Amino acid sequence: MKAAWSVSGEPIDVGPCPGCGVALAAVKGPVHPYMTCSPACWATYGLVLAAQYERPERMEFHQLVVDAYAVQHPGTGGDPRAIRSVGIHLMTLCLFLEHGADPALGPRLHRRMVERPVFHELAPPRRRGDLTCADIPVSGTPDQVRTAALAWARTAWTAWSDHHETVREWLTTAQLIPAPGT
Fold first, then answer.
1. What is the pLDDT of residue 182?
2. 139-148, 155-164, 172-181: which range is least confident on average?
3. Residue 60 to residues 51, 64, 100, 102, 169: CA-CA distances in angstroms?
4. How far apart are CA 137 and CA 72, in angstroms?
5. How many domains does the chain have?
6. Does residue 159 sit within a domain?
7. Fewer C-beta within 10 Å: the chain N or C terminus?
8. End-to-end Cα spacing for the chain
9. pLDDT > 90 fraction of the chain, expressed in percent and rounded
């Protein structure tokens, strides 16, 4: 942790999230049960989610927010829930960003992915993208937030480029995209 200074001139501890790397003022609090995140990052994500749920028009791209957060905080230790989570969220990011799928279909797509394919752990990238949940405005117009969420999703997806072919194979196995050459 490094020190920063509050508005009142008092020192505050600032530390990076072990998942996405964002530096936020340290807080005590809960974290996700299998994603690797700091309490401050988890709380910030909670604020973003609350803003999403308050505005129905933001729910049209809500899945981008969920997927980007999940792949930036992949968990450790071979937890099967974390392995499946990363696989599913990378698959939907691929569908949205490479195949033009509607992010509003996210929950329906996830249901189709849960049982197949059989996921295996992917080595997470060292850097998981240049944007984080802290870059998503909790206020602002839906278009501003949609643009920020899309940029975040793109940087999160790009960070996992070493595994894009594996993700595409999983999508083919789940019959969500055609096999190459067909």
1. 65
2. 172-181
3. 13, 9, 14, 8, 27
4. 18
5. 1
6. yes
7. C
8. 52
9. 69
Strand ranges in the chain using DSSP code E only, listed in sequence order: 2-5, 11-16, 23-25
- Residue showing tokens 């973003």: 48
Residue 145 near residue 107 (C-beta atoms within 8 A): no
Using DSSP, state whether 13 is helix, strand or coil: strand
- Per-residue pLDDT of 95-150, as tens digits, reads 999 999 999 888 888 888 876 768 899 999 999 999 999 999 999 899 999 999 99
Nearest CA to 67 out of 23, 110, 34 is that of 110
Which residue range forms the structural domain that includes residue 166?
Answer: 31-173
Q: Judge whether 141 lies within some domain.
A: yes
Q: What is the pTM (predicted TM-score) of this model?
A: 0.90
